[in-house]
Structures
1.
Amino acid sequence: MGRVQAMEEVARQGDREYWIEVVRRVSEPVLEAVSKGQLRARMPVEAAAGLAEARSRSTHLEAFGRLVSGLAPWLESTVSGDEVVLQTRYREWARAGIQHGTDPTSADYMNFGLTPQSLVDAAFLVLGIVRAPKELWEKLDKQTKGNLVKALQTTRQILPTQTNWLLFSAMVEAGLCFMGAWWDPMRVDYAIQKHKEWFLGDGTYGDGHNFHWDYYNSFVIQPMLLQVLDTVEDKSSTWSSLRPVVLERAQRYAAIQERMISPEATFPAIGRSLTYRFGAFQLLSDVSLRRQLREEISPEQVRCALTAVMRRMIERPGTFDAKGWLTIGFAGHQPDLGETYISTGSCYLCAAAWLPLGLPASDVFWSGAAKPWTAVKIWGGEDMKADHASSV
């Protein structure tokens, strides 16, 4: 695909309008069901052979928490035109989902603390709430706020491994701090200090002591590090002093991510959890939302690159089942790509790529003219400055 052809492809429809349509298509089954307390009744549970029953204990919290974590900036933002109706509905449905999901008497209670996986997705739910504090916390009724705090507290009985999982505990505690409940600063500090120790250079952290060729720096590590520090940095001068370094590392990793998107809008299918699809670009999306991209990367080129990736993946036959639920796969329905911890709900981490929808339509990310991303330019023969490792 040449440069002109690539740009024509992403310009077939207004990019923001296309993203909103993807949001609607992916989110509608989950949010409509959860708003009525019927997510367990409606959502299919696809999983590895023989594991559907076991995964059914956690997959509903996965679907809801992960979806909300990606939708949150858009839910919190001010929009106009046709988006208003959809946003209003999804705000109401998301709050209803929190109500049903944290009420132990509800048929849709999401089993906080029952499985190790519930710690993971409690953290993603918290990530969404602190990304949309007005819509997803302040507007909750008193009973639901209390139920939410209790649900999060039950995850403390789960011992995280010495990996990115430390950040799930840290995110939950940071959320409890935000909610005005008792929280454990030691769990937060331990996660921060271990990841400081696990930094490997050039914008990349190990998952524990080891380097992994996968997308966990984007799925979990760097977005959660940033958000934990955003939420509690004023509680410790040690934490606040780390934030500029953590941000600079995130900027470098986001730049690497942008360079990994080929002219054909593909990216390397390496490592674990490929069935999260374009959720692999959460960090690039997060840094874009923060308006903190490195100077050599324009917001417009990121928009075009992410739109092209999204089109390529979401429009692949088999991505959805007959009732509109996501299936396990990377480019279509590929159930063998799902690890034993993957189930239907897991796939909704793709929503993490939608974070720039929290920027207004007038922002240059959306309003600027289409621009080619780095790989399109380089493979098209354009002369560019050489790429270099970060020194931080």
Note: The two ends are 36 Å apart (CA to CA).
2.
Amino acid sequence: MWNWRMLLATGEGRFADVMEQTLYNGLLSGISLDGKNYFYVNPLEDRGKHRRQPWYEVACCPLNLARTLGSIQNYVYAVSEDGIWIHLYEESKAKINLSNHDILISQKTAYPYEGKVKIEISVNSPSEFTLFLRIPGWTDGKFNVDVNGNPIKSVVEKGYLKIKMIWEKDIVTIEFPMKIKKVKSNSFVRENTDKVAITRGPVVYCAEACDNPEFDVWNLTVGTSKIREERENNIVVLKGNGFAKEDNWDLLYQEKGKDKNVHRQVEFTLVPYHMWANRKPGPMAVWLFDRKG
């Protein structure tokens, strides 16, 4: 909500980036897939004991979650004197009045699992205005865009692509490459030394025990092999080859070099973080080791 107000005050896309990151990762993880159970906190690693709870008789935080999910449509579009702004990419329809023109606008997309967004614009009579399309920060400024099938010269300012033209019945198609990335944290976050989080587009992924029963996900090293994406039940999961460390000694401390750690090659599966804790309890981790050792 604070970033929404900063976005309206400044027109800077970086605030919408935070909104998007929070929505797909921190917000949705707070509620179960069936909508009946809730987290009060969202840990980035767990041994299987942290589970969502049913709706409380005297609920506090779940109400904030419910009202935010119920008001998402209010954050997708905005209007200024110059034109119409699209802040979030969601399957949606809107009717907007701009300079006494009724404008119908719709988005068709499978975002955030797919990067293609088809935007249909219909105006009751030809009208000139600017369409502002947010270019998410995670894209590193890479995208393809066309109007009615014709590529256009793009001008991006403060994180928004500006398309100024006379609109009547037009289709804008924009596509973002959904690149898989390894993300590091600040070096002062000592708990994440030699660790990375895996993202694809705006979605953060995690390793959950029920997808990786052959090893402890807390000991997973993602390795250097290419991580690939696969479709499962209308979502994108990530898979790759890495290493699992097995400690074959019971001492709390031991001189380095005398330990008998064994690293064996494994295939791992990662799922969107917001979907974790909806199946059988078990260890989970977002931050994963990035090198063998």
Note: Residues 26 and 273 are 9 Å apart (CA to CA).
3.
Amino acid sequence: MLLSAAWKTMAELTEYLIQEQKERPFVSASSMYPVRRELSDPEYAAVAAAWKRKSTELAEKIDQYFWSEDAGAYIDSFISGRCHISRQTNILALRTGIADDRQKKLIFANVLKNDSVPAIKTPYFQFYALDALAGLGELDSVMHTLKDYWGGMLDRGAVTFWEEFDPEITGTAQYDMYGDRFGKSLCHAWAASPVYLIARYFVGLRFAEAEGTGFILEPQLRYFGSLECTLPVGMKGGSVSLHTDGRRLTVCSEGVSGILRIGGEEKMIIPGQKTVWNFCV
């Protein structure tokens, strides 16, 4: 699934660069590359088409051999015949777009909401699970896991997030990993996904250059009694800041304009100006 997604991404990047080359001719500033074929060379378009074809063909084979209609999910091993089902495989099917809309609904019911499928124990892969759930609109479930799972680490005295967390394991054994005594990282960057999940789905920030503005902000205010945060926007040092006390939301941006959306209504966010929204939670 990851290989299929990688080929698809390479095709999209190549097509994008070809279009950029047409609009903005490339000039190399390095004498190391005195000769460089234009990206508009038909060879590049052929390479992009080949990657797209390989991605599609592999996705079709994954569907043919690994999708189980009986289980309503993707299995982990075709050769073994054991039809083992894991959350990880099916989450990747959601994340990479391998699963269609019908399969997504079945995966949600038969895997993500099925307690008999073994739970994920690493914060690293919890990110993919929660991102998939958030994409399906299951924000209540995502927030519950953030509070229960990452909050569980905090309840154990964590000051940075751990490489792995199993709430069933206590004492010094909770610091072991893969049979290595005290081998667990207790300051693991890949475990810090709440930073992204809260910013993207609960503060509701997404970039929207195609819509004529730098960003769109759709905060899910029902999840916050109070909130104060500043998030980066764009590649040139822009940012957007939010403050709410449960009755009023104040938004300020620096360097880039945006749109604030709440309950189907919109307000423009102008750089350097405060945008205020009174609301009832």
Note: The chain is about 40% helix and 15% strand.
